[in-house]
Design brief:
Blueprint: E1 5-14, H1 29-32, E2 35-43, E3 49-53, H2 57-70, E4 75-78, H3 81-92, H4 102-105, E5 108-111, H5 112-120, H6 123-127, H7 134-141, H8 148-155, H9 165-187, H10 192-202, H11 205-214, E6 216-218, H12 220-241, H13 251-261, H14 279-291, H15 295-328, E7 332-333, E8 336-338, E9 348-350, E10 352-356, E11 363-367, H16 380-384, E12 386-387, E13 392-399, H17 402-411, H18 414-421, H19 426-435, H20 439-448, H21 454-469, H22 475-486, H23 492-505, H24 508-523, E14 525-527, E15 533-535, H25 543-573, E16 578-583, E17 586-592, H26 596-607, H27 613-616, E18 626-631, H28 634-637
Parallel strand pairs: 1-4, 4-5
Antiparallel strand pairs: 1-2, 2-3, 6-7, 6-12, 8-9, 10-11, 13-17, 13-18, 14-15, 16-17
Helix pairs in contact: 3-11, 5-9, 7-8, 7-9, 8-9, 12-15, 14-15, 17-18, 17-24, 17-25, 19-21, 20-21, 21-22, 21-23, 22-23, 24-25
Length: about 650
């Protein structure tokens, strides 16, 4: 095995003296001319080390292409590989959304960080916050290696990127040596049933790396409009209520206003014993006030809710966008991707670059983006200000009913499977069961209502029930979730009825809960399609949470596998669809506007004809379809 594997490490530095704290950590700076690759180290299969330094940019790029060409068809390991691949794409392809260099596509990229997380993923790693830094992995998994002490000592030295060139050149050489040793030690530990999923994740490295340096263009005019809208909303409501604007973002001030000045009764207390002022708390207080006939006070709470939402959106998405744009300097914001971001395998993003001062140990964060995955659905103008690069459209593909379909497959519930095999309306089926009606009759009545009426409302309750009940929930919790998330008022008895109806209609689901908890206790882990595991150790101390993880990971982890399969399939079969963002069960990408229609259709056909058997080892008994849209900005498609 060892003779087939290369290892690569890049050292980078800022070209701008004002950016030494962060530019070397931002691969998109390469296209700005603000940062560069300083050196490249490659450990070859025979154990020799190739190192070349960037003394001349054109010569360096030529040598990089040549070195990559030598690795064609072979495996190449790195640590935090998306970082290195993003830098190499930016170095060899100056055009945003330009074709990914073939020399990069021809290499089989692997990542020791991802490999390690696949092996250790579990409750213990989560609770101990186990570090995936290369130095910590070498210390943990290679304690007997003769070079480990020197390597740990070298990594602990505090030099900024580009400072003390000799140090960084030595570090690059040591990194590829120890990365290789780590990879060879750990790859042998991967169980057979995990290998397909791990390789699927590795296939995402190139398109995800490319998305990092393409970024998101910000429409400055709409950003200004958002600034004025949300600032004015806060100011207007503050004047109407005769309060200071700071009240809306201060739990202490708001608590005094509500529970002392207005003498209201709190809905709940925080863990520290203070009266709750969260959105959910305020919604319940407003509801109770209206129920008691205190309309004026209820309207005050409603205005506070509006102001709090405006304050949150302004702070998280408007103000932060300005901060990010000031930092990036090119009209784009850049989110740093984390391929294995959550324990279920979902991707996450960082919206800042963190720089550490080794003398004081203090960390500084530089905003590079916004929390893309947290933008409220109602804040359409925030999504509207995010656009693809000039000359491109944005496309989005959503895995339709993903968790419900995966639950049907995993639980083998015959009713659920029949619904999806016959392409029936899943939410209508549950709605019909809730009111005790045959499905066919229910659908006839619903369709005759033209979008509004008793049966349409029953279907909405069916949808709410389906979304809430996959992973165990009580009637009271469902009623609270319905109100706080969807503004649907249900009493606890109705919530109990919905839960019981779901469990009675889809009997295979509660049976799945029992089975997977038992199986996970026996095996010591729960797993998803594709083989990703989550080790469970807290059965005694956190029984309910551990059981919930046993139930949830096989479904959400399989959703993560679907996402990674989709990203890889699109890169191989429709390379003109430039992957841009993963968001829950949807994938976004950029397409040249003059060919967007064709590219979109090809991408849609690709996703709806995936052979899951080669990834999961079985053919799903139902379809796993994707729906899509495309448009001028992110609001047009989501």
């Amino acid at each position: 095995m060892s003779h087939e594997h290369f290892t690569l490490d890049l050292e980078t530095k800022s070209k701008d003296p004002k950016m030494v704290d962060h530019a070397a950590l931002e691969p998109w700076r390469r296209r700005q001319g603000k940062a560069e690759i300083m050196s490249c180290d490659i450990r070859k299969p025979d154990g020799s080390i190739l190192q070349f330094v960037n003394d001349d940019q054109n010569l360096f790029s030529y040598r990089l292409r040549s070195a990559l060409a030598e690795m064609k068809g072979h495996v190449c390991w790195a640590h935090n590989t998306p970082f290195d691949v993003a830098w190499m794409i930016a170095d060899l392809q100056p055009e945003r959304c330009g074709n990914i260099p073939q020399e990069i596509l021809d290499v089989k990229w692997r990542d020791t960080g991802l490999l390690t997380k696949w092996l250790i993923n579990g409750q213990l790693a989560e609770t101990t916050r186990f570090s995936l830094a290369l130095a910590n992995l070498v210390k943990t998994f290679l304690p007997e290696h003769p070079d480990t002490p020197a390597f740990i000592e070298m990594k602990s030295q505090g030099y900024k990127a580009g400072e003390n060139t000799a140090y960084w050149l030595e570090r690059g050489t040591m990194d590829v040596k120890m990365t290789y040793e780590l990879a060879m030690k750990l790859i042998a530990k991967v169980p057979v049933d995990m290998r397909a999923g791990l390789l699927t994740e590795f296939d995402c490295i190139i398109p995800v790396s490319n998305s990092w340096i393409n970024g998101f263009r910000v429409n400055q005019k709409i950003l200004e409009e958002n600034h004025d809208f949300y600032i004015n909303a806060k100011s207007r409501i503050a004047k109407e209520l005769g309060v200071n604007e700071g009240l809306f973002s201060s739990p202490k001030q708001l608590g005094k206003f509500l529970f002392t000045d207005m003498a209201l009764t709190p809905h709940s207390q925080t863990p520290s014993g203070n009266n709750g002022t969260s959105k959910g708390d305020l919604m319940w207080i407003e509801y109770k006030l209206r129920l008691a006939g205190h309309v004026d006070k209820a309207n005050v709470i409603k205005k506070i809710l509006e102001a709090k939402e405006a304050s949150t959106i302004f702070s998280k998405y408007v103000k932060t966008t300005y901060e990010a744009l000031e930092h990036t300097g090119d009209g784009y914001i850049y989110s740093s991707p984390r391929i294995f971001g959550t324990y279920t395998g979902r991707m996450t993003y960082s919206n800042s670059t963190t720089s550490k001062d080794f003398e004081t140990d203090e960390k500084t964060k530089f905003k590079t983006s916004i929390a893309m995955h947290q933008i409220p659905r109602k804040a359409k103008k925030v999504r509207q200000m995010l656009e693809p690069p000039p000359g491109y459209k944005v496309g989005e593909f959503d895995a339709a009913g993903q968790e419900s379909r995966l639950m049907a497959i995993r639980s083998k519930d015959p009713v659920m499977l029949n619904i999806f095999q016959r392409e029936m309306n899943f939410h209508s089926m549950t709605g019909a069961s809730i009111i005790g009606m045959e499905y066919e009759t229910f659908e006839e009545c619903r369709k005759s209502e033209d979008g509004e009426g008793h049966y349409t409302e029953a279907r909405q309750r069916g949808k709410l029930t389906n979304l809430a009940c996959n992973f165990r929930i009580g009637g009271k919790a469902l009623s609270e979730q319905a109100f706080e998330k969807y503004e649907v008022m249900l009493d606890s008895s109705t919530g109990n009825h919905l839960v019981k109806t779901f469990c009675k209609t889809y009997r295979g689901v509660p049976q799945y809960w029992d089975d997977v908890i038992y199986e996970s206790k026996t095996a010591g882990y729960t797993s998803a399609f594709g083989g990703r595991r989550y080790k469970l150790t807290d059965w005694q101390t956190h029984r309910w949470a551990t059981e919930s993880s046993a139930i949830m990971v096989p479904i959400q982890g399989s959703g993560a596998s679907m996402k990674e399969i989709a990203i890889g399939e699109l890169m191989r079969n429709v390379p003109e669809f430039n992957f841009a963002l993963d968001l829950h069960d949807a994938s976004f990408g950029y397409m040249k506007e003059d060919e967007a229609g064709r590219i979109f259709k090809e991408a849609e056909a690709c996703l709806n004809n995936i052979d899951y058997e080669k990834y999961w080892g079985f053919k799903p008994p139902i379809k796993l379809p994707y729906d899509g849209m495309w448009g001028d900005n992110f609001a047009d498609v989501k």
